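Input (diguanylate cyclase):
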Amino acid sequence: MSDAVALKAIRIRMIKLADLIPGALDQAELHWLAMPNRHWVLLSRRRAAMIVNRVRMLAFLFAVLTPLWSIVDLVVFPFPLWFWLAMARIFASVMFASLLLYRPNGELADAYQAMALLFAVPTVFFITSYVLLGHYHLSAISAAIASGYAFLPFVLVAGFSIFPLTLLENIVFASPVLMAEGAAGWMRWSGMDWPSFAGAFWLLVLIMGVSALAGISQLAFMVALVRQSIYDPLTGVLSRGSGEEMLDLQLALASRSNAPLTVVLIDIDHFKQVNDRFGHDAGDRVLKQFAHGFKTALRRGDILIRWGGEEFLLLMSNVGVFEATRALQRVREGGMGKRPDGSPLTASIGLAERISDGCDEWRSLVKAADTRMYAAKQRGRDCVVAAG
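Output:
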């Protein structure tokens, strides 16, 4: 009973969080703010691109500013300390510069790797500088500049606020910074000012919380924007722009594993007559009915795209021509909906498959399916035309 009460309380808090971001998220999407494992593929790819771009932006800033601070160190620190700090800064700057050359393939794992390196370098630099400074007794201006190194973890944690991250991702990426701060305290265990250290650590945790909230808010708005951009508002299936992105992704995956990939172009027969006789509102209802019927009749993994007007594109991964043709025949036999006058909806359908058609590029695959769709029209419509 206590578990049920706890779950209910968590759900209420998540709903209240959604109220803080009006119109951004549906309640079913709230769990996406906590964990990334069920995000749309296109959302993950766009989020990965944004993370990598912001990693490069920060890497460029750090690569320029990190060695420049050596001028200040040269003025206030003795030469041996300045030399080793300068070497650490040069090494850090080279690592930051290497991130500018990083060319990911669009996967979220690559974005994680780039972000981990971006924050690992200054974290290691913080520990290194802490060890070096601990060997010197500094005073006056030197001590003041040296104390500034202690604020590096606060800068790092605040930096997470510019990334659209889930709660889990924020915790994972911020944990090494918190551990580095704890390691610095452990290294001065004997002379630790515990109230001062506890206050600083608590402030670091608070900044981490604020940064996490900022990142989660970015993610929430990104989910809403991506949802609006990838789905056709009338039919609820993928829009053409998102469909092209999905075609590119699925063809790359199929080529990598040498798996079949079938593209189907579907054109509703005599759709113009529906608009002319019954009006555009009736035509919109027909399109929604047709898209819903197709989505429910096929496999969960099949992707339906509104290609334009009354044309739809169906993307069937790991399916050859024979299996795809049989599946489409079953959909036709089961009915694809009704026209406003009660007569059945029919469609002209053309198929193309990556291996049998020898297509290494999705545009040529779509062109082959388009040619066969027009062949279906020439054969009297209401039929499926595939290779051979």
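Strands lie at 261-268, 303-308, 311-317, 347-353, 383-385.
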